[in-house]
Amino acid sequence: MRNKHSVLSGVFLGVLASASSANTALDEMVITATYKPSSEMTTPMAVSAIDEDSLRNNGISSVSELSYAIPGLSFVNAGESNSRIVIRSIQSTGEPTAGLYYNDVAVSGVVGATNDSGGTLPGLRLIDTERVEVLRGPQGTLYGAGAMTGALKVHFTKPKQIQETTATIGLSDTESGDSNYDFSIANNTPFFNNRLLTRLVIYGEDKGGYIDNLSLEEDNINDSETKGARLSLTHHMSDSLSIDADWFYQKHEGDRPLWHLEDGDYNTINELKIENLDRLEMGSINLSYLFEEAELTAIFAHQTRDANQVSLDLSRFYRSFLDNAQLCSLAILQGLAPCAQVHLDIYNGVLNGMIPSALFPKQSSQEDSFELRYATNKADSTNFTTGIYYSERTGEVENLQLLADADSGNFITPLVVQYRRLIEEGLKQTAAFIEISHPITSDLNMTVGTRYFDYRRTASGETPLGQLFLQSPETPYQSYESNESGWISKFLLDLKINENIYSYTSVSEGYRPGGVNQVINLPTDLQAYQADELLNYELGFKTKWLDETLFANLNLYRAEWDDIQVAGSSRDDLFRFTSNAGKAIVDGLELELTAKLSEALTIASQLTWTDARLTEDQANDNLVASGLDGDPIPYTQDFSSGLQISYDFWQSNNANWSSTIGYNYVGGTQSEFRPDSSLYQKIDSYELINARVTSEFNNGLTASFFIDNLTNETAITYAARHSTTIGKTWATSVTPRTLGMSFTKTFN
């Protein structure tokens, strides 16, 4: 470890020593993190932005890959539709701890049977993306629930006043796996003398598998297909009034990329296909009216999501009960007498009739939201941003146990349903907020803000077809409700020390809603759980050096997390629920360095150090493997770092050739609080190297050649055990070494 850190430190020193030789300043990106245009340098918060060129040069096409370029950002990535955004090492079950926004519209996951919408965030492909902004630290006053630790904002390219079509096609091959291909087409067309602008994007992706199923004797089972489209319209009704309308659609289907650690790299012994289908559709209308020194914005949005996937292969679980005389007596004779052989044969026959089978929750959700916002933008004067917010989400879950064919691993058709549970959930949120910024002096500015929130959660359901071995009897329809309201606040001072050094200090709060569990036989006092809260203290510096050829940003923070929403379990570990237990503190440091060493050479580096630990025992006796004071928070790394080197190595009259090499180190972590838990799994650190060579021709053609995971590292991103896996650990990982090429052509 020390050697790796020393190498990175040496690179930092080399950056400082060499940047003075550059003769071209770095560009400052304009962002809208505060809902007002500002440069990344002068925005008083820990925010990192990455533009379209950087996304392309680093080969970033999905949200989860952003962690390699941005400090303090990571993901608990259990595959498509099963990703959790983690900012500053704060993550747990429940609603998202970090907000995800597509064109200023907040999206959330599907709630499912365990109320864990934060672990199922949708990942639209980053095709035709103008920039991505990552806001670190609580953003509760402006962004509300779900932005407790920060927000990840994706800004897709808006329609332009030009006629243009861009087409891209990519081909690649994964080591010990199948080939992959992708395409995208983006068309921009203006109408009516540039008063109406349109942009249509269509894309597709076919990924070959690389995981082998030893039970079914099939190779490369985790192939998948993604299709998507996006239509954006901008209508300038007058010089002051404009309307932006956006429609998004994406459908992903294929087997989840899960394999078993105990059976060798990229091998699984699942006895059936681990299917996954995820469909997201979103529509939004953004009305904007510009006053002389202010802007009024109204956003209406509607989104629907369908996510159907195998959550658990129950085959090993049921097989472990075979020839169990005690369970036989309970199942056949209600425990009144021991089982004779004839009874045991009947009992075993029932179990064998459920092998292979899996839990297959069919989940859907719909959400409508509205936000009205008024923001002033006066130079050297007091400014404020105020508004109201409303959203209503409803969700439905049909949790099924389905029987599969032992030879093919596919579900038998017509479906053989062996267990059926129905769940409905609802979440209504209303809020009002205001932030006021006031210049104390020409160089010192103060910002105060507050937000009032109110939410109401409902949960209801029934079990029309029970399952004895899951200890889930038939239950009648039941309904539960909870609600909560409160205030959060923010205080910030930002100081312009000189033209090249800015600093800020802040105290800010964040929260996320509580809810209601819909778990069979759960005690009444555990049905509802509360909102958890975060109090963050931060000191930041943003600096420019050597004629703006070197940017260096440093953030120091302490976050105090209270009433943590944690995953509990029934005594037999079959049913998960959410509860509040314990407190935690996260201390951290984030450092970003970007230097332009010459006209051709740019180096960007970042590192993150965190110490995320409990400061109070999780005293809820119903929790399995509850944490104790001092335990590290699961799925959080104490150290990670990255280095990207971009070099324009050859230029001619017809083309410009450049290369990008990226190195990332991700520290080790663990899946549970306590190492003595039967579910505990240690997750090792890993290193990744990606390389890309790009040629941009004067005729509008761009060709790229790349190698991802150059050293073919087996990099585990998620590992988990469950009582039903019977000694096996499910894992997901970075894709093995992949070589490929892509070609982009722009037609005017």
Structure commentary:
The chain has 748 residues and is mostly beta strands. The chain is built from six helices and 43 strands. Helix 5 crosses helix 6. It is globular and about 85 Å long. 45% of the residues are buried. Mean pLDDT is 90; it is low at 1-13 and 15-22.
Give the structure's gist in a few sentences:
The chain has 748 residues and is mainly beta. 7% of the residues lie in helices and 54% in strands.
Helix count equals: 6
Mean pLDDT: 90
Structural class: mainly beta
Oligomeric form: single chain
Largest sheet: 22 strands, antiparallel, barrel
State the helicity in percent bands: under 10%
Rg, alpha carbons: 27 Å
Question: What's the layout of helices and strands?
Answer:
Blueprint: H1 2-18, E1 30-31, E2 38-39, E3 46-51, H2 52-57, E4 73-77, E5 83-87, E6 99-102, E7 105-107, E8 129-136, H3 140-143, E9 150-156, E10 164-174, E11 179-191, E12 196-207, E13 212-213, E14 224-236, E15 241-255, E16 259-260, E17 267-268, E18 275-290, E19 294-309, E20 312-313, H4 315-319, H5 325-333, H6 341-352, E21 357-376, E22 383-403, E23 417-439, E24 444-465, E25 475-498, E26 501-512, E27 515-516, E28 528-529, E29 532-545, E30 550-562, E31 565-569, E32 576-580, E33 583-596, E34 601-614, E35 639-651, E36 655-666, E37 669-670, E38 682-683, E39 686-697, E40 701-708, E41 716-720, E42 730-733, E43 738-747
Parallel strand pairs: 6-9, 13-17
Antiparallel strand pairs: 1-2, 3-8, 4-5, 6-7, 8-9, 10-11, 10-43, 11-12, 12-14, 14-15, 15-18, 16-42, 18-19, 19-21, 20-21, 21-22, 22-23, 23-24, 24-25, 25-26, 26-29, 27-28, 29-30, 30-33, 31-32, 33-34, 34-35, 35-36, 36-39, 37-38, 39-40, 40-43, 41-42
Helix pairs in contact: 5-6
